[in-house]
Amino acid sequence: MNFAFIGLQILGICTIFFALVLLLKGDGSREQKLMEYFLVGALIQNIGYLLEVTAPTMEAALVAVKMQYLGSLVIPVCYCYFAYIYCFEEAPIRMLKFLAVIDAGLFALILTFDHHHIFYTNVEWQTTAKGHSYLFLEYGPGYVVFMIFAICIPYLLSLHVLFRACIRRGEDAVDRKYGVILFLSILPMIALYTYVMKLTRAYDFTPMILGMVLSCVVILIWSRRVYDFGSLASGALLNSMSDGVIALDEKRRIVNYNPAAAEIFPGLNSRAIGRNIADILEFPEPEPGEEIKHDIFIGDRYYQSHVEPVPDRFGAIKGHVVLVLDMTEIRNNIEEIKRIRIQAEQANEAKSEFLANMSHEIRTPMNAIVGLSDIIMEESKGRKVYSYACDIKSASRNLLALINDILDLSKVEAGKMELVNADYHIKNVTDEVINMMDGAASKRGILLKCEYDMSMPCKYFGDEGRIRQILINLLNNGLKFTKEGYVKLSVGGRPGEDADTELLHIEVRDTGCGIKEEDLGKIFENFSQVDAKRNRSVEGTGLGLSITRHLVELMRGTIRVESVYGEGTVFILDIPQRIVDRRSLTEVPRESVRKEDEIEPFSAEDCRVLVVDDNLVNRKVARGFLRPYGFMIDEADSGPKSIECVRQTKYDIIFMDHMMPEMDGIEAVQIIRSECGENGTQPVIIALTANAMEGVRDMFLSNGFQDFITKPLDKRTLNEALKKWIPEQRRREPDTWEQSVEKMRKAKPAEK
Fold first, then answer.
1. Nearest to 583 by CA among 426, 739, 442
2. Per residue in 588-641, pLDDT tens?
3. 422-584: in CATH 3.30.565.10
4. How many other CB atoms are there within 10 angstroms of residue 341's CB atom?
5. What is the CATH number of domain 3-232?
6. What number is the average pLDDT over the span 140-146?
7. In the chain, where are the structural domains located?
8. Could you tell me the fold of the domain covering 241-326?
9. Is this model's pTM higher than 0.85 or not?
């Protein structure tokens, strides 16, 4: 027995075991698993061979041989797969699976080779001249198949991929590692050749050399990290990058670069290595540890360089990395986006200006139509004239609703739609809306119903006006598309996100024509009206539902629709609202609901009011609305005349138009505020304008106005403004509004 050889075999086993223990501390990656597999195979092979050479009998030696082959079959396939992954190439999976299947068949032959002559034609127990016994085996056809498919093909594939990696890589320390691994991988093949060719009879050095080589590969890669997978990945990534990367040492010398950098800068070649970057390229030289950016223009291409310091593990700066980004397309896209944005802003400004002008130009005559119809209704004693006035007012309000829809859409698209939150009683809002819509429902012969969850809180915090608008839009939509039956409003509450919030649950159900399933997704689009042929008689802009959806989303709520074509539709809303009063509707006394035009009039005969408007009809309307209050009313048709009036007379309230020739209302107010204070306290100045665009109110308030009323003039809005600015001690309540009007009519004949 050769104790020196046995010692070498044991050393090889220990080396494999050490490498395996070292490897088990890894991160569990696929590459690590493959190295674990071929190391385990090498360990089994070497232990098996150690048992073979130390076996006292032929039977024990045969068992050890079979053990060796178990490891021998695992190693080549796993090492081949590992080599492909290590060299960043796509592994031939189908071939490896085919080889694994053949290995399984060969192992079956190996387990039974002492019962047939397929694998070994002769098996003998021989003794050397020195008295060492060993197993002598003569190879059969099965062994030839084993050598070809289990050993040669996978090992040759491994050597091939390693060789290709060597020739396509550079000469740096990282790339040279491929050559080292290739050289180590050849050594087991040499040892195997010497044994197969009977150059060494007593001992086979292949298992020991293979185990030592595999252990060295693992230790080299995994322990010393001279060439780990992170480095391989980094190298592959740099070479595949479309952006240029240049590495500089601490003296600003070029130490490496990727192919993309060479394409960007023709001066970058092998001769540039070791030279200062300033000698090759026009780069700002960074100070140690400095981060800089630099714009580079080469022809029609635009690049941006980023110079980043590279510290070592102790924080000392060892160099810099220059990242050169091709920003041409991004820069062109940015310029295009800027151009498009400017065009969009200009178009939006033009649209806003158009809508503002349209609003002003339409609301001005609308003010006359609505206002004079109100005055006629109040002062007329004839039923027919009163009826005509009612029709005129109804038609004008329909037209005004269309204008408001268009303005609301403009606000939504501009992102300027804002909520005005305050405390409100939900039942008062819904009752008011039902009262408002009841007349239209009666004319159509449709039953308008409303039901409440009486356990819901009575008072919320939210935008009462927008809630009212949503209800009006949905009820109006139901009435338009319902020819018979009913439209039903259901209001309730559901638990919200927290204890202080509740979901205001609203359902509007009708028995109308319904909506086809394919049209359900279109109903919330702007200017959309589904089933146009069937509903061609239905009037409207197609904006009501679109605006409703935007309002619900603005309040962080949800809206959905369910419909059966030909049977009816239901809109379902959930809008989060903060609870103000938790008392249920049954606990709060029912408040009387005001009719649409009902107001609480008063008289203030000692108040003097100035109406400023360049339009005679608008002044008539304003005077007609103000006279029932008993005010002393003066008029001015321009800004300069209003200034003269204020200089001569002390006014309590001034209603100032905005757009006037010669001098607009804002300029007139600024002069009044700065030059006309000698007559006592400053008057309350209220903007009375046809401009209803978003942000106009803030514009007026920031320029000396104290309040804001849009045209057409509304009695209720006017009355609320007057009550706000005329102290209570100066107000006297008349018996009724009709009595006040009658007194006014008798005291002064109607103006022509």
1. 426
2. 765 544 444 456 678 888 899 999 999 888 888 888 889 888 899 999 999 999
3. yes
4. 10
5. 1.20.1070.10
6. 88
7. 3-232, 241-326, 338-413, 422-584, 608-747
8. Beta-Lactamase (3.30.450)
9. no
